[in-house]
Amino acid sequence: MQYxxxxxxxxxxxxxxxxxxxxxxxxxxxxxxLRVHYLDEGPRGADPVLVMHGEPTWSYLYRHMIPVFTGAGxxxxxxxxxxxxxxxxxxxxxxxxxxRHVDWMADVLRQLDLRNITLVCQDWGGLLGxxxxxxxxxxxxxxxxxxxxxxxxxxxxxxxxxxxxxxxQDVPEFRAGRIVYGGTVSRLTDAEVAASDAPFPx
Length: 202
Prior knowledge:
The protein is of the alpha/beta class.
């Protein structure tokens, strides 16, 4: 599987994001490996809070929540989904399947051996996180679920989901920062918009 890797310089001096990067590799399911980035903050012996972002965001989304969780004594794991953030980005659309995303993140949980997890998920982080819960329920203890769904295959996704999918696949220039800006209640700074764009130089 061919992939792109965003240069580290794109992630220097981001607003409110002074976290150390961590990496592991997962089986790309096509005979190779992909590098997955994640944050690992707080005491290592504490029960983990797994925060899973959606599209088009990355672990930067949780920059203000992570200090709150660690301040309360929790360990926080914040992965960047494959294709986002500092994780590798396969180059072909056909490389991205729902099952592969589940498999890649399941590999991350197994490698980190996370247990007694509190899952905090939204958007695509929920579509994947809830599948992880169903796949390995013994690893999870609690759920915090926001604006997401769990596709079951027996009914179509919502019109809003279908509209977003069409837009995300057909828009000539996918500007992640402007999309995040348009979906927030509070006004983002130019630096925050730029940080949302950081993983995608072009």
